[in-house]
Amino acid sequence: MSAKRLEKNKVPEKKNQTSRREFLSQVAVGAGVATAVIASPRAGSAENEVAAPQVPKAVDESLSAVPQRMDFSGEGMLGGQVFANLCKDEGLAALFCAAGNYNIINEIAQVGIPCYGGRTEGGMCSAADGFSRVTGEVVACSGTEGPGITHMIMNIASAHASNSPLLVLASNTALAAEDRQRSIQFMFQQPLTEGIKKWGKRITVPNRIYEYGAYAFRNLKSGVPGVVHLDFPAEVANARFQDASKLDYFHNKEQYRSENRAYPGAKEMQQVITMITKAERPVLIAGHGVFVRKASDALMRAAEKHEMAVVSTGPVRGHFPDEHRLSGSMSNDALLSADLVVFVGQYSMPNPDEWTLPPGVKTIRVHPVQEDLGRNWPVDLGLVSDEQYFMEELAEGLPRKKRDSWVAEIAAARRKHEENELGNVAKGLEYSRSTGRLHPLVMCKEVHDFLYKGDIDPKQTVTSWGGAMAGNCAQRWLRAYRPGQEIPVVYQFGPMGPDLAMILGAAVAVQRGVGPQAAWQGAPVVSVTGDAGMGFSLMELDTCAKYKLP
User: Fold this and answer.
1) How far apart are the first and last CA of the chain?
2) Is residue 207 assigned to a domain?
3) How many domains does the chain have?
4) In 208-260, which residue ranges form alpha helices assigned H by DSSP?
5) Residue whose C-alpha is closest to residue 413's, from 353, 485, 356, 491
6) 488: domain CATH number?
7) Is the terminal CB of the chain with fewer CB neighbours within 10 Å at N or C?
8) Degrees (nearest 5) of the Cα angle 427, 462, 520?
9) CA 14 to CA 246: how far, in whole Å?
10) Same domain, yes or no, for 125 and 241?
């Protein structure tokens, strides 16, 4: 933005407006950091006249540039351009990156894919994960070789544990320099991400760059979502192709992958309907697949038609609303009396003793691929099916049924849960008064009341929670009333630090109104985290400010 535009958009100071220094002095009782700011001789520098920042002309020119898709005319196409065109054709939703890997990221930006640059590779990896969690879309992150890819490892592992369809891109030094120690950042990347990805490839044959891009999106968009990691040696990204015949395996996406998904068999579907109908206290565990495959509406119809309890789980919550009378997400005592549990799209399947369910309960599991059925948890019936197809068939096939006693038991368990949590908040208040230190439970209850009990539409605000004590308290009071509204940052991995970066990615999705965030475009987001969660990704607050993310 130019200096003139900055001055034009400057908010005029109001009369008697409290300065930042005065504000700090009024509220900083007991706050060491604020006191230090006030005591500093530079504390009032914000009041002094500061010259408007000078933004290079090239920045405005770049922002206003029309996306340009390269083709084989003229000098032909570079490998990075071939790959960028494929990403555009596949509908890659966004790219989050730090410095480096320019031969790839510049071309991705050139074709019009939204790109966001942040402070660290790890932070941008988690931002991409956060974007994907609240949209279900395939998204990419990028970093340089060596320190860039190693900085992303924890964040890649977190995305892997959450089954996020994340495309990890990294540059690599020239193949010609291998074993010569000519490049200080050379390393074999694929072994580093072994066990924390669905598929990966170090592309060493330049004319196969399109083929391996096809491999990547076939894995990202088929079966259970997961992380895909590609690294591009210099010879591959910079290779030049005069025409399509110079590329090995150059086909459109309809030819290299299929949109076809498994449909539940009629016989198995009838077994499911019979088992649910005979059960007195059925529970449906709606996992991540219900969100990813956009099956929330069908889930609602099936639950209300047959009065089943529903628990919303996964690395994002809200595909069944917490306030619904059939929600069992805060009715643990009732779940202990369930006589049938139906898992749908539960990609991460822990052991039975990790769930608040009765031992030996009859179990149905619906999963998009066959190999995982029966792992960790023996099933009475396993179905291979796309989650949306299954839920549509279930909503259509179930008879209407009232379960008054089961609904009453769910409601009673919820009231007990809420009373217990209010009791915990009362203890937190007592602690806060006696010590002068605010207990996280008290803070989280206030956040709850502000977001869900005041003038704000409870469905508006996307939230996340992470950390240890702060996260433990936040998960008790944050709510999800619509798909893609709440991110448990620590889901199935417990990483320390990606909290602010992850909510940054979610904020981008809300700002742009992507997928389930469309109705709430431009709304602010809220992250509840602890000191470690702040410390490891605090720099990405600067990225939020840069992109005006509320």
Assistant:
1) 19
2) yes
3) 4
4) 209-220, 234-237, 253-256
5) 356
6) 3.40.50.970
7) C
8) 140
9) 65
10) yes
Tokens representing residue 502 in the block: 């992850």
Contact criterion met (CB below 8 Å) for 373 and 224: no
In a domain, 56, yes or no: no
Domain that holds residue 541: 438-546
List CB contacts of 273: < 8 A, sequence separation 6 or more.
Answer: 394, 397, 398
Claim to verify: residue 286 and residue 181 sit in the same structural domain: no
Query: What's residue 64's pLDDT?
Result: 78
Task: Clarify whether residues 276 and 297 are in a common domain.
Answer: yes
* 182 belongs to a structural domain: yes
**Residue 97 forms beta bridges with which residues?**
117, 142
- Domain-located, residue 454: yes
User: What are the pLDDT digits (tens) for 404-450?
Assistant: 999 999 999 999 999 999 999 999 999 999 999 999 999 999 999 99
What pTM was computed for the model?
0.89
Determine the average pLDDT of the residues in 223-232.
97
Considering the domain architecture, whether residues 486 and 528 belong to the same structural domain is answered as: yes
Q: In what order do the strands lie in the sheet with 115-117?
A: 115-117, 95-97, 139-143, 166-172, 228-233, 199-202
The Cα–Cα gap between 141 and 101 comes to 11
Do residues 540 and 501 touch, judged by C-beta distance below 8 A? yes
Q: How far apart are CA 464 and CA 476, in angstroms?
A: 12
**Shared domain check, 275 and 197:** no
Q: Among residues 230, 200, 253, which one has the least CA distance to residue 90?
A: 253
